[in-house]
Design goal:
The complex is a heterodimer of chains A (315) and B (323).
Chain A: H1 20-38, E1 47-52, E2 58-62, E3 68-70, H2 73-81, E4 88-91, H3 115-120, E5 125-129, H4 135-143, E6 147-151, H5 156-170, H6 173-194, E7 200-203, E8 205-207, E9 212-213, H7 219-226, E10 229-231, H8 245-251, E11 255-258, H9 260-268, H10 276-279, E12 283-285, H11 288-291, H12 298-309
Parallel strand pairs in A: 3-4, 3-5, 5-6, 7-10, 7-11, 11-12
Antiparallel strand pairs in A: 1-2, 8-9
Helix pairs in contact in A: 2-5, 5-6, 6-12
Chain B: H1 3-22, H2 30-37, H3 43-77, H4 90-103, H5 111-132, H6 139-162, H7 166-177, H8 185-204, H9 206-213, H10 216-221, H11 226-248, H12 254-264, H13 270-294, H14 303-322
Helix pairs in contact in B: 1-3, 1-13, 2-3, 3-8, 3-11, 3-12, 3-13, 4-5, 4-6, 4-7, 5-6, 5-11, 8-11, 8-13, 12-13, 12-14, 13-14
Classes of the chains: A alpha/beta (315), B mainly alpha (323).
């Protein structure tokens, strides 16, 4: 099933073994260098600043946090990819990936988390989603003397920035650069391959009653563009706007992109059959395991979408 | 009410507060919690007890007192055992304010202000509807006006929410389910001011409430300006309810059920009833918040639902004894 022209995702197998050796060397060299330079300096204070997070708060953390609570699936995924999964002492209930995340204690909701449960994990850093729902939690944790960093991850660029920042925080910028660059390279090469192909206009419904679709604010819309498609709701800035089926029919997409369980519903629904694409059988099933969120598997997501939209690429 | 019953209520409140401070997701031993309350021992324990549990317990206590006293006064002035702060548009108006603030993307700190403004607007609207029908002092017209304003508010909320995006709807729904999780000392201070001032005013009007309970004509015969008294009591109790809603969202059922429990405990006359309702409300909400925190860890239940779940059995028992 090799996809001609589109490279395999470099070194992003779920167990992350591939890249380890390469940059262990880099890290050792870096450490040696750092050690050599620091010889003349006095030991500095243990807290360092890492710029501001998406709540506009300064991220002030011990040089090497060793007990991290990750309350978003993105950060959990990225930390495992950076080889820092063993520093996690808590996660939110939706952090299911990679499989080893299941071994990290589940602290419940990531939005409006249970502060007592988080404090009980004795973390030195808590990573949260930068939603208004988490404002108070962040203040409470900070006043308990626990470092926090809150991020919004709705776009591909935000993933890139977050990965590099987490790399600096855990003290492994080299590996973070490797992960971020790998994803970037994969996305670039998919984009290059699909650039000359005709765009496939698609709609991405995520919910019915009310009908909610992916809008331009979501990374999925970006991913569809990279994969040689065009989201008919790309011009709506919201990530998940509610629309009417009539409007979908008016915009007349070439295909419907959906997850497996919704595909059956749409194929069997008399209303959806108003859409020519559905009558022609153009209900394409996305591999939701790789396109669920803008994180480490973005590259795989783009590859799988491109394969779906442009099967001719595989030939 | 016999002194014994008062002492029982006070004792129950003290016990509820101690339990709320000592019990939580993190299990501290009794000695550890006790020390933590006075700032001794493990820093984490001190923070959890004094910075997390204490502010929300204090807010829950004030919330219960405010809702209890407001409900008792409204049931008295409207001569309607089903009257409660939320029946009369306060909650609806506050919810419209809060939902508009949330969906407009205003800072969360502004939501309570918007809720308060919405509640006040709804109360004024209900009063002017009653006024327009020349029924200012007629409790039936006031109830109708409140219900209609509430229905209008509900419709507005649905229209706003239908087009809001998912994350904002979640924020708005969370607010409507009521919670003291975000309690801060400044919130408690504000609420305390409203509950104390409003409560004192209502207690001072206790005799007037007693007279009104005899019916409009008898009250007028006793020298009460029925229209004015009705309007003052209605406004004051709505103001107290609006302050509670601004502080903690919608916590239903307390205002309805607590006065009945207080009556069942033997509170006769409105002064005693108002004070007993404040105490009973405090006990109920402090316990409800404790249950909300520890029932399904690490999740937290909506306070408004827990107050109803705890309040209904009490209510049914009192109802059975009444019949």
């Amino acid at each position: 099933m090799a996809l001609a022209g589109i490279p395999r995702v470099h070194g992003l197998s779920p167990d992350w073994r591939v890249p380890v050796l390469a940059h262990t060397t880099a890290i050792s060299a870096f450490c040696l260098l750092a050690f050599a330079c620091s010889g003349t300096q006095k030991p500095q204070s243990t807290t360092r600043s890492f710029g501001i997070d998406d709540f506009s708060d300064t991220i002030r953390i011990q040089a090497r946090p060793t007990r991290i609570v990750s309350l978003t699936p993105h950060t959990t995924e990225i930390l495992f990819a950076l080889g820092a999964g063993n520093r996690l002492v808590g996660r939110d209930m939706y952090s299911h990936w990679p499989d080893s995340a299941a071994r990290v204690p589940n602290l419940g909701q990531g939005l409006r988390p249970n502060i007592e449960a988080v404090i009980a994990a004795k973390p030195d850093l808590v990573l949260l989603y930068a939603s208004q729902d988490n404002r108070v939690a962040t203040q409470q944790l900070r006043s308990a003397g626990i470092a926090t960093a809150a991020f919004k991850v709705d776009r591909i660029e935000q993933f890139d920035r977050l990965t590099r920042l987490l790399g600096r925080i855990i003290g492994d910028s080299a590996r973070a650069a490797l992960v971020a660059d790998t994803v970037k390279r994969t996305l670039d090469s998919v984009r290059a391959k699909t650039q000359s192909l005709p765009r496939v206009a698609v709609v991405l419904p995520t919910w019915d009653r009310p009908l909610i679709v992916i809008g331009g604010g979501s990374f999925m819309s970006q991913l569809v563009t990279i994969a040689g498609g065009h989201n008919i709701y790309d011009s709506i800035p919201a990530p998940s706007p509610a629309v009417t089926l009539e409007d979908v029919v008016r915009r007349n997409p070439d295909a419907v992109l959906v997850g497996p369980e919704r595909a059956a519903i749409i194929r069997g629904s008399p209303q959806w059959r108003t859409l020519p694409a559905v009558r022609r059988g153009r209900v394409l099933v996305i591999d939701t395991s790789v396109t669920l969120r803008p994180a480490v598997r973005l590259g795989e997501g783009a590859v799988s979408l491109a394969r779906l939209l442009h099967p001719e690429l595989a030939r | 009410m016999p002194t014994g019953r008062w002492l029982f209520l006070l004792f129950a409140l003290v016990l509820a507060v101690i339990a709320a401070l000592a019990i939580g997701t993190i299990g501290f031993g009794p000695r550890e919690s006790w020390n933590a309350m006075f700032g001794r021992g493990d820093a984490t324990a001190v923070f959890v007890v004094r910075q997390l549990r204490l502010p929300r317990t204090v807010l829950a206590l004030l919330l219960g007192a405010g809702l209890g006293i407001s409900g008792a006064a409204l049931q008295g002035v409207l001569r309607n055992p089903l009257a409660e702060p939320y029946l009369l548009g306060v909650s609806g108006g506050a919810a419209v304010g809060a939902v508009l603030a949330v969906t407009a993307g205003l800072a969360f700190a502004l939501v309570p202000l918007a809720a308060f403004a919405g509640a006040i607007a709804a109360v004024i609207l209900a009063l002017s509807v009653a006024h327009a029908t020349r029924g200012r002092g007629d409790p039936r017209i006031l109830v109708m006006a409140g219900v209609v304003v509430g229905a209008f508010a509900n419709a507005t909320i649905m229209i706003v929410m239908a087009n809001a995006d998912a994350s904002k709807i979640r924020g708005a729904v969370w607010w409507m389910m009521g919670s003291v999780a975000d309690a801060s000392w400044s919130q408690s201070a504000w609420l305390a001011a409203y509950v104390l001032a409003g409560g004192a005013m209502l207690v001072a009007l206790g005799r007037t409430l007693d007279a009104l309970a005899l019916g409009e004509d008898s009250a007028a015969g006793l020298g009460v300006d029925v229209d004015r008294a009705t309007r003052n009591i209605y406004l004051t109790s709505s103001l107290v309810a609006a302050a509670t809603v601004a502080a903690a969202g919608l916590v239903g059922f307390v205002g309805l059920v607590v006065p009945h429990i207080a009556r069942r405990l033997g509170a006769r006359g409105h002064r005693a009833l108002l004070l007993a309702s404040a105490l009973t409300g405090s006990v109920l909400v402090v316990l409800a918040d404790l249950v909300a925190r520890v029932a399904l860890p690490p999740a937290e239940l909506p306070l408004g639902a827990v107050t109803a779940v705890l309040g209904v059995p009490f209510f049914l028992v009192t109802l059975r004894r009444l019949i």
